[in-house]
Design goal:
The protein is of the alpha/beta class. The chain is 28% helix and 24% strand.
Length: 435
């Protein structure tokens, strides 16, 4: 068990955000389905990416990770795609929901397992859909899971207010089938930005899908095309540095490198969210510059707001820390899916903020925060959740005593270099081994 101790210092400077985990996993699966010959650049070997590489190898594709060059090379296996096997999804919710329909489209008998909270994360949409399309689905409600058979084309109907990862999984798989298919949504789609990202990356790999009034039409018999592809930087990780820039004393300037200002990532909305708190941002060539010129004022010149997070759930941990130190009330509404992440993130952030001297409460699908000028310090539970641990770095910047956060190494899931990057900005992140 490791804790990280966050302090109040931050000097500012430049930081390069890691590649988008969401885009990287999608690109890796497209590379696999192209059958080899793809080179992917700007890859970081986080736990989720390593899990995806393992899944691709289980499918039968040969891959090589060049950690120094941040690249992944794929090549065709002499045996082609496997006809079954076991896939360890580790703790990646994205991977398990993407890979199940892909494996079903390839056919055979496949077993899936996971760790942490992943075995308890819901898969019921597939339990309902796949048996209607030729696939036997054996599960006690989550992982471990076994599927058997080969997916058949047709109409796939589902609610839109569940995780968009189920939609993405089908968008990967259905083009591989011999016949045409449709995805029909019975309610409005949440996290639309992630589906838009999927469709964009599929187009980049030669797969075309047509939207309609209630979903998508997916022609069958399509081929994924091998290519050279560079993964864009991660806007959801940029939110952690915008949070730091908003809360740091003295208004230091943080310059964030590696972001696409025209990205389809839904979490690009972090610019608007932190702007409404009071953070100033602008672009200078390819750098996003963030600074709080009112940091000397009460509450750092930050004010609360109401945020509909149905499309941007991953931003809530970072934004909730900023909210806890902003004047007035902030409400995160339509947040129910946060309870189904690596942790129950509504509960995790409510408990962490209160443990450090803030004021937070919750309802089933809301997180409500009353701002305080400073935290009192103390120990907060990281809940083995990378986003909770990284978000609380901001808490140390406006605290009367050090902030200690458990489960420090959960950052390995998506951003192994976070503590190092924080230190390069003059921040304090001391990892302490317990026991």
């Amino acid at each position: 068990m490791h804790q990280v101790k966050y302090g109040s210092a931050l000097a500012g400077g430049r930081v390069t955000v890691p590649p988008s985990k969401s885009a990287a996993i999608r690109a890796l699966l497209c590379a696999a389905l192209s059958g080899g010959g793809t080179t992917l650049y700007n890859m970081e070997p986080s736990e989720d990416i390593l899990a995806t590489l393992g899944a691709i190898r289980a499918l039968g594709l040969e891959t090589q990770l060049d950690e120094e060059g941040k690249a992944v090379y794929t090549q065709t296996s002499a045996l082609g795609f496997a006809s079954g096997g076991e896939i360890d999804c580790r703790e990646s919710g994205s991977l398990v929901r993407f890979i199940i329909p892909i494996a079903a489209a390839l056919g055979g008998c496949w077993r899936f397992r996971g760790r942490g909270r992943l075995p308890k994360r819901p898969l019921g949409v597939y339990a309902d859909l796949l048996p209607k399309h030729g696939v036997e689905f054996n599960s006690q409600g989550g992982l471990p899971l076994e599927i058997r058979g080969k997916l058949t084309p047709g109409e796939f109907s589902m609610p839109g207010n569940i995780s968009s990862q189920f939609v993405t999984g089908l968008l990967f798989a259905l083009p591989l089938l011999a016949g045409d298919s449709k995805i029909q949504l019975t309610s409005p789609l949440e996290s639309r930005g992630y589906v838009d990202m999927t469709l964009s990356i599929l187009r980049d790999f030669g797969v075309n899908i047509t939207p309609n009034s209630s979903g998508w039409y997916i022609p069958g018999g399509q081929k994924y095309l091998a290519r050279t592809y560079t993964v864009e930087g991660d806007w959801s990780h940029a939110a952690f540095f915008l949070n730091l820039a908003a809360l740091a004393a003295g208004g230091p300037e943080i310059r964030i490198i590696g972001l696409d200002p025209d990205s389809l990532q839904g979490d690009r909305a972090c610019l608007e969210v932190f702007g409404h708190f009071g953070l100033h941002t602008h672009w200078e060539e390819e750098e996003l510059v963030a600074k709080n010129p009112h940091s000397h004022k009460p509450f750092g010149g930050l004010t609360g707001q109401t945020i509909d997070v149905s499309q941007i759930t991953d931003m809530v941990p970072a934004a909730s820390v900023c909210a806890a130190l902003s004047q007035g009330e902030t409400r995160f509404v339509n947040a129910g899916r946060l309870r189904l992440k690596e942790s129950d993130r509504i509960m995790a952030m409510e408990n962490a903020i209160n443990a450090l001297g803030g004021r937070a409460s919750s309802k089933e699908d809301e997180l409500i925060i009353q701002g305080v000028e400073r935290f009192s310090g103390g120990i907060a539970e990281g809940c083995n959740d990378h986003r909770v641990v990284m978000a609380l770095a901001g808490a140390g910047l406006r605290s009367g005593a050090p902030v200690l956060v458990s489960d420090a190494w959960s950052i390995q899931k998506t951003y192994p270099q976070f503590f190092d990057d924080l230190k390069r900005l003059g921040g304090e992140a001391d990892v302490i081994q317990l026991g």
